[in-house]
User: What shape does this take?
Amino acid sequence: MTKPLVYFLCTGNSCRSQMAEGFLRAMGGDRYTVRSAGLEAHGLNPRAVKIMREAGVEIREQTSDVLDPLLLEKADYVITLCGHADEHCPVIRNPQVTRWHWGFEDPARATGTEEDILDAFRKTRDAIGQRIEQFLREGS
Assistant: This one.
């Protein structure tokens, strides 16, 4: 039996979608195939790597990828994590794909001291982690 494919999408695939991919791999990776992508690839944000490591999840080896139309159509779940990706996600022709939008603040836009910015990343990380836990509890 093949595992359901969860495809997380964001604008740049640098923070939020990377966090979601990392959390689902860590918490439910044996139940799902997990991928993430962006409408563009901005590279993995080092602050995302740092705050995920604080939570015990290593995402350093994940890659920042551009959306793959074939994966989009094969996915069981397509989950957008920012409004821009939700609004600009290509049309999914496969009626079997479940599409959800989970909107989270973009921590990469945070300003202030380094600690202020890291706190914004932690807040987004924690919100995404809670939403992944809910996803797993509800059986998707």
